[in-house]
Amino acid sequence: VMLSKNRMIWRRFTVALFFQLLTERLLLFIIPLLVYKHTGSASMTGFMVFLEWLPTIIFLPIAGRISDILGNLRCLKTSILIRLVLCFLTAYFLTGKTITESYSYLTFLASALSLLNTQSFVSLEGSLPGHFTEDYIPKAYSLIQGFLQTSLVVGPLIGGFFLQHFSTPQIFMTTAVMYLISVIFYQMAFGKDQKIEIKSDSLSLKPIFSAFSFVIRNKFILTMTLASFSMNFFMGTIITLVPKHIIEVFGQSEQE
Q1: N or C: which end of the chain has fewer CB within 10 A?
Q2: Which band of pLDDT confidence, cut at 50, 70 and 90, is reported for residue 199?
Q3: What per-residue confidence (pLDDT) applies to 94?
Q4: DSSP assignment, residue 255?
Q5: How far is CA 15 from CA 21, 143, 218, in A?
Q6: Residue 132 to residues 8, 127, 195, 224: CA-CA distances in angstroms?
Q7: In sequence order, what are the residues at sequence separation of 6 or more whose Cβ sits closer than 8 angstroms to the Cβ of residue 10?
Q8: Residue 226 has pLDDT above 70, yes or no
């Protein structure tokens, strides 16, 4: 019975995770490209990418603390629902408006989505031990990493298709539906079962400072952290420069 339950949860978890990570990477790619496509400004595109990555770096330790206080599963589902609503509102807000007119709003959206992506990632990893047996937990972590890497490739491919065939409001409405599918399958997989959710009545920031101190003292973790920052820096640079390079060097039209 336990094996059958694990398999059912696993299948639902796989669908939920796939749609969540794919939508995250899709928006991470599309928003800066929308800005460049409609403004032609690499500076504005670069600033947008900066605002997508900066909150991730700053908010990561705080996200862990929020999950400790409110519960991992609750934070995971809530972060997806908020992004669903933001995408739906964006589809409505951008109807009949140009990207240039909406640049300030897209700046806010990019930062908000980045914060929520960080919160959901931390909460997701914290939710696994309470909902899978020990033999499934390594598989779940491997699945997360596999989907993360796959979505980095598939996300831009689908994003390019969306930009070519869909209007901007239609793109954001589609991502809202994708988030809806994700949260429905998370609910079906995990329900309200939160066996080992950590609760805390304290809003003390001491655990965050302790974590920073631990990272600074541990040379290996500090090196890995700096390497991660460097990778994010180069990825942001590539996302910013590639559209401009393609159009200037290969002479492609906006649609191509």
Answers
A1: N
A2: very low
A3: 86
A4: -
A5: 10, 11, 37
A6: 11, 9, 10, 28
A7: 132, 136, 139, 140
A8: no
Q: Is 252 left (phi over 0), alpha (psi -120 to 50) or beta?
A: beta
List the structure tokens of 152. Answer: 């980095």
> Rounded to a whole number, what is the distance in angstroms from the first to the last CA of the chain?
52
Q: Which of 77, 32, 36, 57 is nearest to 188 (CA)?
A: 77
Instruction: Report helix angle 42-70 to 206-217, nearest 10.
Output: 120
| 151-162 confidence digits (pLDDT tens) | 878 887 888 888
Q: Which two tokens stand for residue 255?
A: 């649609």
The mean pLDDT of 164-185, rounded to a whole number, is 93
Tokens encoding 216: 């600074």
Q: What is the DSSP string of 33-61?
A: HHHHHHH--HHHHHHHHHHHHHHHHHHHH
CB contact at 8 A, 145 and 15: no
With 50 as the cut, is the pLDDT of residue 69 above it? Answer: yes
Q: Tell me how far CA of residue 253 lies from CA of 93, 104, 120, 244, 250, in angstroms.
A: 27, 26, 37, 11, 9
Q: Are 38 and 184 in contact (CB under 8 A)?
A: no
Give the integer Cα–Cα distance in Å for 200 and 68: 7
